[in-house]
């Protein structure tokens, strides 16, 4: 594989939405080693032969098979027969704008894999087809796409044999802890203590599995929960600030605006 410094960087998200869903191109056979800097890519094959090389792994394509390519990973295809399947490309902006906490969790969990074989191929194909149809629709709905994407990821992970081992990592214990917290804390030290590990070890685990620091992971959860509370509850800004462990309304408003670009009130009005 070529040195990463001279690898081609592909960006399939130019001139498209923050998510793209389409059939896998039948013309694709061999590609040069490359990486994606701006998006997460899912590829699902229902028919194809050959292999997929990702980082230091060489994976034989035996459909049905689902591949995950994270940002910065180096990969290439060597496909020997006409491929059939689907591709989903997800930009960071799509994830940032998503207020569905469970969908965030599913994206985090599935991003820890390079590939796996789904157990219920018929259901997976049906959901992919519904996603592709909704994406092509002139009246496409983000909420429908998010709902179908959540169903797809949940179904893909439902019977995965490595899921128990995956959930035993420090990173996934951390994200499970965040998902089940009644009151989030913006403190790496606090969660490291609950996990009986050091802040340094927690940071290392996060960076290895999702490419972010522990504090960035916490921030993602806080902002996702803030969006959900703003859009789907009648809580006041002050109540949301308290729920998310901010000292006061002002501190929460400054934090939200710094990360999102809008005040909580402006964000709620625009959505």
Automatic annotation (TrEMBL):
Coiled-coil residue windows: none
InterPro entries in the record: Homeodomain-like_sf (IPR009057), HTH-like (IPR037923), HTH_AraC (IPR018060), Tscrpt_reg_AraC-type_HTH (IPR020449)
UniProt source species: Seonamhaeicola algicola
A single MF term (Gene Ontology): DNA-binding transcription factor activity
Keyword Transport: no
Entry keyword set: DNA-binding, Transcription, Transcription regulation
Keyword Transcription: yes
Designated name of the protein: Helix-turn-helix domain-containing protein
Gene3D superfamilies recorded: Homeodomain-like
Occurrences of domain HTH araC/xylS-type (ranges): 172-270
């Amino acid at each position: 594989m070529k040195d990463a410094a001279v690898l081609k960087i592909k960006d399939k998200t130019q001139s498209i939405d923050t998510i793209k869903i389409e059939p896998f191109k039948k013309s694709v056979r061999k590609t040069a080693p490359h990486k994606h800097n701006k998006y997460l890519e899912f590829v699902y094959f229902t028919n194809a032969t050959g292999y997929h090389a990702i980082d230091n792994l060489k994976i034989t394509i035996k459909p049905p098979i689902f591949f995950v390519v994270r940002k910065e990973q180096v990969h290439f295809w060597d496909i020997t027969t006409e491929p059939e399947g689907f591709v989903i490309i997800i930009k960071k902006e799509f994830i940032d704008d998503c207020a569905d906490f469970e969908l965030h969790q599913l994206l985090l969990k599935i991003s820890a894999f390079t590939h796996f074989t789904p157990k219920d191929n018929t259901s997976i194909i049906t959901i992919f087809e519904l996603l592709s149809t909704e994406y092509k629709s002139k009246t496409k709905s983000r909420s429908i796409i998010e709902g179908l994407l959540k169903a797809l990821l949940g179904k893909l992970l439902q019977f995965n044999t490595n899921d128990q081992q995956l959930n035993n990592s420090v990173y996934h214990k951390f994200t499970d802890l965040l998902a089940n917290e009644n009151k989030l804390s913006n403190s790496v030290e606090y969660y490291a203590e609950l996990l009986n590990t050091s802040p340094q070890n927690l940071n290392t685990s996060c960076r290895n599995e999702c490419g972010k620091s522990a504090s960035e992971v916490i921030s993602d959860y806080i902002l996702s929960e803030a969006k959900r509370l703003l859009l789907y509850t009648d809580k006041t800004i002050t109540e949301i600030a308290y729920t998310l462990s901010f000292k006061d309304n002002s501190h929460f408003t400054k934090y939200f605006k710094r990360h999102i670009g809008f005040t909580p009130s402006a964000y709620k009005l625009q959505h």
